[in-house]
Amino acid sequence: MADSKWIAEMEQKIPVGRVRTRFAPSPTGYMHVGNLRTALYTWLIARHYDGTFILRIEDTDQGRLVEGAVDVIYKTLKECGLDHDEGPDVGGPVAPYIQTERRGFYKKYAEWLVERGHAYYCFCEKTESEEESGSFSRREDPCRCLDCRVAMARVEAGEPYVIRQKIPLEGTTTFHDESFGDVTVENASLDDQILLKRDGLPTYNFANVIDDHTMGITHVVRGSEYLSSAPKYNLLYEGFGWPIPKYVHCAPVMRDQHNKMSKRHGDPSYEDLIAGGYLTEAVVNYVALLGWSPRGDIAEQEIFSREDLVKVFDISGISKSPAIFDIEKLKHFNSEYIRAMTPERFAAAAEPYIRQAVKNPAYDPVRIAAILQQRTEVLTEIPEKLDFFDTLPDYEAELYVHKKSKTDIPGSLATLKKLLPALEKLNTWDENDILKVMTDLAEAEGVKNAKIMWPARIAIAGKAVTPGGAVEIARILGRDECLRRIQIGIEKLERAV
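RE: above sequence
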């Protein structure tokens, strides 16, 4: 017999009256982009409607658990600013929030469902492959029609059993999804899924429904791969006499038109993206738009802070079409966020990458960051841009030849020979003074500034492409190193003439 008193007490604990959403990951490793999107949408729905966001750890599949994965979940949510109101670490009115700690709940609810006529004890032996293939006909299952007293006698005698959902043999089941609308399926196409296994543990589908109801979840956000299970979820809710939450099924995130993103195929997880030099804010912003789009006056807007997203996020903007993950598009988002950072914040973010290439402590990372900020798309690009600071590259004299700047080898030699003594005379070494020397020389020679600055930059950097121009680089290098490099340039050009 079901424990009706306990079930009634559980019902009394369920919070009501406001939106409640949950992110319920399995701790099986990294946080892939699809998981992050589910967490983000779930959080946004709760925050948009001034509701409650819950973290629930679904760890009943013990064989797939990965050590440290729960820490990855906590760390990712914290970094992304997706704070939860209830969860294993903060508690709440419907604790516990770890599925294995709720094991005792599921059997009681399964037994209650049997009493209500929507489930049954099944003593038939079936292999997992038979279950997965659906090769076991409900109409031929002798246990569906067993008298309850006979079934209970077999249970009490210690005979192994599972508890199955009793799907109607005829008719249809219709469920409503916020993105896909009303979906109707023939009940004959559904199988009597196992709710409680022989070892007493619940299946994922059953535990999910029990936990969502007893936690008062009003909106269930999950991947569209669960659409096929939704009719059976509906029938469970109806069997218990419970209200059905709003379903929000999200189409998959794809790597291209035909393939879902997959770690096995080298697609990046959230952690990979951060390690790859992407900013968390940019990743969150981009992931929000993978399957959702704003409406109305802001339909064309792309850049949204978390606070902006909370204000404008609307379930109706979620698409039922798959979204393609475009790393180049994310790179564009990242560059926009980098350029919008305060100089101080960018310098702090860039310093570890600057120091990978620039070991000389005499070079100020803050000054180097200043010439990088408007020229950086991802932070991991930074080291390769700065390899000339510690050591002047062994470059070819042909670099001095530049059509747009109208420079050639003889002309560049003449320029450096005039520039060197002019710089040596400077009393102070700041950008204004260095710039004035170069522009004054250009004016005296009757040429454009570029004809002076190109040879100067090649001499002090040894590269055609640098973050920052000749003046900025000269200031960072300092007087002695800058003059030394110009002298090397003169000698190189003299050998080439």
